[in-house]
């Protein structure tokens, strides 16, 4: 996620954004729907991808994705100039998380993680459950 000036299309940069964030079309579509109140199907996001057809990204879509991902530098998405992500201070990052619906939906506190609860799962699934357990309450999110 470095400074970039490229001749890539916005469609290609959208694909790079999704890949670099480790995200998916579905997650981006849900973020847009939550923030803007506009329902958007994952195929609507996918049509802007390089292999998703020949549609060009419309200004309305860039506005919607910018509203949904405020850490994204939308001018980078449009033109390829600058950085993909804005330089946010720790306070800005914390404010973004603590004001999010995701955070507000968490319980205030959670119980200690019980290793026995994952004993019957395959090792990869155990790791996923352990990793996500650190985000299962507002108290743990603030700690991390």
Describe this entry's structure for a reader:
- The model has no long low-confidence stretch (mean pLDDT 82).
- This protein folds into 2 domains: 10-79; 90-143, no CATH class.
- With 144 residues, it is an all-alpha fold.
- 51% of the residues lie in helices and 0% in strands.
- Helix 2 crosses helix 4 (59-68).
- The protein is globular.
- It has helices spanning 10-20, 25-36, 42-46, 59-68, 74-79, 90-98, 101-104, 123-133, 138-143.
Reported for the largest beta sheet, the result is:
none
What does the radius of gyration come to?
18 Å
Any idea how many domains? 2
- Taken in chain order, the helices and strands follow as HHHHHHHHH
* Low-pLDDT sequence parts: none
> From the helix content, strand content and strand pairing, which structural class follows?
mainly alpha
> Please, what is the average pLDDT?
82
Number of helices: 9
Distance from first to last alpha carbon: 23 Å
What is the number of E strands?
A: 0
Please state the overall shape, judged from the principal axes of the Cα atoms. Answer: globular
How much helical structure, as a percent, in the residues? 40-55%
Strand content range:
under 5%
SSE topology sketch:
Layout: H1 10-20, H2 25-36, H3 42-46, H4 59-68, H5 74-79, H6 90-98, H7 101-104, H8 123-133, H9 138-143
A few lines on this structure:
The protein is mostly helical and 144 residues long. It has helices at residues 10-20, 25-36, 42-46, 59-68, 74-79, 90-98, 101-104, 123-133, 138-143.
